[in-house]
Design goal:
This protein has three domains: about 5-175, no CATH class; about 185-305 and about 335-560, TIM Barrel (Alpha-Beta Barrel), CATH 3.20.20.80; about 570-770, no CATH class. Helices cover about 45% and strands about 10% of the residues. The chain is built from 28 helices and 15 strands. The strands form four sheets. An eight-stranded parallel beta barrel has the order 1-2-3-7-8-9-12-13. The chain has a three-stranded antiparallel beta sheet with strand order 4-6-5. Strands 10-11 form a two-stranded antiparallel ribbon. The two termini are about 35 Å apart. This is Glycosyl hydrolase-like 10 domain-containing protein. Keywords: Signal.
């Protein structure tokens, strides 16, 4: 799914909700949806699934409130399934740092009204989050399944018997859960208390390395929220320990999402926020906090943001500003000089009010609707249709640069070419203000071949090492125009694999660093919203210098973090991991839709769900979405190659653990668990594809021998999934970073891996019933 389609869907379903004033009852996206919810027949009923999935995330009293029953009934349901007494619930689950995990697991269980009760928020808050919190509604599938209200019902005898069977199964699993689980979000506490007093360093906005390394090194912090973090008095998304560790790994800038109209008060006919001052004060405090560690703050600017049609219809002067349309939104047309003036004036105000704010990066031809050319609608606008595309892109970037530099002459403006019509790139770049830095995705358009399938990289690739031809051409234009250059890359994690803090493909990281150093790139943006952990990957990339040998650099890093005795084994493991990951079945469709993020936590379905995979959200059983351009057998084979390579590398890491001591052993043990997780997730992706392919064939086959083969394939895949789930569970219980990503929160928690075992038992029983059907055309249910 492309970003353009994603935003179009948001505009179709949710633009009205996002623009309503608080006094209006906000409509929720697809509120009257009729799509059938996905059922979970391994539970006795919906109320059992509800209690199971929320038992470790939501207090029992809140579950009882949703079910409209005394809390004793909720506890009885939990006890009947063998669940232990509820422990203390981490507050993050009911906060901007964790609520998405709660919302996702209840999406097919509860209607909107009960979701509001569960989350303890208003309709207006949920409407805003679904639309504005990094495409959340799209990640949930851009449809709300129909769920009738869920109320407590006294269990039937049949339900009680099924619950008792679940309890017996839980007792069998319990030895794997005997050791206390490390609380989820424990890394936030660690980051919050681990910092040491820092002495103020040179402000990074003016740093110059003299050609030794990258002058600008920006990242998105590992646990930063995407929504509205500046209104948090504690700025808890940005703990000082995390800033300190990022600084020690070489970072000198962090970026954050911004919406300009929330940072300025209303300005005549132009939009603004009455509480803008609150965010400005938060931004001041964040700039001061980060500066203690030599880190600057950069705003992601995607402006001027479109407004709802009702905004323009409220005033004739506003209507005169209206440009191209998408859904219920209309662009603030930048061919109207007053719109560019407001953009410049607003940014100048922000930068004057926040001394030390380091700069911005812009996206002007994608993401949200901004200028009339930003999303292909230039021809809709009478003012813009006969103007040059290049003029429109240059003008808005120039207005942004003018505002930023008027407010702070030393601030940087990074112009990102994401989404530009490439045929205009040379002209646009040549006309940008000379103070701008030109940023391009390093690996974009890089040709690859995986399993005999040829394609090209878009972005988010760790498995393919840039730079590619597009970035090289655009940087060449920039250098000819006298501009500095920035490479946007992923160093730690990508949408190929987002569930660990860093994928240990250190040779690929070193190669990318060497390539960009050879290109004399001035700066790097090291991540999108994922990949902001202070890791060895990050340290390696930041420390690379011209003329260094990769082998030497990798050995020194391994000796520093794991000791001289373990280092040779670690380096050999890194080699195997890097070689294996180059086999990942890369494609944009697979990145966004594949099962690799949920891994073993994704259930196996005996009947088609009918739901397409959602963007890095819920993969369901949508095999055709998962495999994208790859035939199923190729997709399976490539995922298995990655899994096998990681298994071999993990054997070496296990030997390294055995010869290490003290702090080295602790770090190696953690890294081994994370590497195992990558391999398990890829193996699980292969299993799920095998299972689903065989299931689809079984459902249409009437030949007894064929059916036996398909059933055997499904059984082997399910049994393999059971082993992988059992292997992953203790790793996940011990390491709270696994499964977490800042814009999606936790993809899964340990309770979901326990549920997968219930799911697999159900599937195996179902397969037993299919082995001898009543007739050749009817399946036993």
């Amino acid at each position: 799914m492309t970003r353009k389609l994603i935003v179009s869907l948001l505009l179709l379903f949710g633009s009205a909700a996002a623009a309503l004033p608080a006094s209006t009852a906000a409509p929720l996206p697809d509120e009257n949806g009729t799509a059938p919810a996905v059922e979970s027949p391994w539970f006795p009923g919906r109320q059992y699934a509800f209690v199971w999935r929320n038992w470790t995330l939501v207090p029992a009293r809140k579950l009882a409130e949703v079910l409209e029953t005394p809390v004793e009934n909720v506890r009885a349901l939990a006890e009947s399934m063998g669940l232990p007494p509820q422990r203390a619930i981490e507050p993050e689950w009911n906060s901007p740092q964790g609520y998405i995990t709660v919302l996702r697991r209840n999406w097919h269980l509860l209607p909107y009204d009960q979701l509001l009760t569960l989350l303890g928020i208003t309709r207006e808050e949920l409407a805003w989050r679904l639309i504005e919190d990094d495409y959340l509604f799209v990640k949930l599938g851009y449809r709300k399944p129909y769920c009738p209200p869920l109320h407590y019902e006294k269990p039937s005898e049949q339900a009680e018997r099924q619950a008792a069977r679940i309890a017996a199964q839980v007792r069998d699993i319990r030895p794997a859960t005997a050791v206390a689980e490390t609380p989820r979000f424990a890394f936030i506490d660690e980051f919050s208390r681990s910092h040491k007093p820092a002495r103020k360093r040179q402000e990074p906005a003016t740093a110059d390395t003299g050609g030794q390394g990258f002058a600008l090194r920006i990242i998105y912090p590992y646990c930063a929220t995407f929504g509205d973090p500046l209104t948090d008095p504690e700025l808890s998304s940005y703990p000082e320990g995390l800033l300190q560790r990022l600084s020690e790994a070489g970072v000198n800038g962090i970026w954050m999402h911004s919406v300009l109209r929330t940072l300025v008060p209303p300005d005549g006919i132009f939009p603004g926020a009455d509480d803008a001052g609150l965010r400005i004060e938060g931004l001041k405090r964040l700039v001061e906090r980060a500066a203690k560690y030599g880190i600057g703050i950069y705003l992601y600017v995607n402006e001027p943001r479109a407004m709802n049609l009702s905004f323009f219809e409220s005033d004739p002067q506003r209507k005169a500003l209206m440009g191209s349309a998408e859904g219920d939104q209309r662009a603030l047309c930048t061919s109207v000089p007053e719109v560019l003036d407001w953009t410049s004036r607003s940014l100048e105000s922000v930068f004057r009010q926040v001394p030390g704010l380091s700069g911005v990066f812009t996206i002007t031809a994608s993401e949200n609707l901004t200028n009339c050319a930003s999303r292909g609608g230039q021809g809709q606008c009478e003012r813009c249709r006969n103007r040059s595309y290049a003029d429109l892109i240059v003008e808005v970037n120039t207005a942004i640069e003018k505002g930023v530099r008027s407010g702070s002459p030393d601030a940087k403006v990074l112009v990102w070419d994401w989404g530009w019509n490439d045929s205009y790139a040379e002209e646009i770049i040549g006309r940008l203000p000379k103070s701008c830095w030109l940023m391009s995705v390093s690996e974009w358009a890089l040709p690859i071949e995986r399993g005999g399938i040829r394609s090209a990289v878009g972005e988010y690739a760790l498995s393919a090492v840039g730079p590619g031809p597009r970035a090289l051409a655009h940087w060449r234009y920039a250098k000819q125009a006298g501009l500095k250059t920035v490479a946007k890359i992923q160093v730690n994690a990508s949408w190929e694999m987002a569930v660990v803090p860093a994928v240990p493909v250190l040779e690929l990281v070193a190669q990318h660093a060497e390539n960009l150093t050879s290109e004399a790139t001035d700066g790097v943006m090291l991540s999108w919203s994922l990949g902001g952990y202070p890791s060895t990957n990050l340290e390696l990339f930041q420390s690379f210098r011209p003329g260094q040998q990769q082998e030497t650099c990798l050995r020194q890093l391994a000796e520093k973090h794991y000791g001289k005795q373990a280092a040779p084994l670690v380096c050999r493991a890194w080699h195997l991991f890097s070689e294996a990951f180059k086999e990942f079945p890369y494609n944009g469709g697979t990145l966004y839709s594949g099962p690799q993020h949920m891994g073993p936590a994704n259930p196996l379905y005996t009947e088609p769900t009918g739901w397409p995979a959602s963007m890095v959200g819920i993969p369901y059983d949508a095999l055709d979405n998962w495999r994208s351009v790859y035939p199923t057998e190729t997709f399976v084979a490539q995922m298995q190659k990655v899994a096998d390579g990681f298994a071999a590398g993990c054997e070496l890491l296990q030997k390294a653990v055995a010869v290490s001591k003290g702090k080295y052993r602790k770090q190696l043990t953690d890294d081994l668990g994370r590497a195992r997780t990558v391999g398990i997730h890829c193996a699980s992706s292969a299993n799920q594809a095998r299972f689903t392919e065989a299931r689809n064939r079984l459902l249409t086959s009437t030949d007894r021998d064929e059916r036996r083969r398909y059933i055997d394939t499904m059984r082997r895949a399910a049994e393999a999934e059971a082993e992988l789930t059992a292997d992953l569970l203790p790793i996940v219980r011990n390491d709270p970073t696994i499964g977490y990503e800042s814009s999606n929160h936790y993809f899964y928690v340990p309770q979901d891996l326990l549920e997968k075992q219930l799911n697999i038992r159900y599937v195996l029983d179902w397969l037993d019933r299919q082995a001898e059907p009543r007739n050749s055309e009817t399946f036993q249910q």
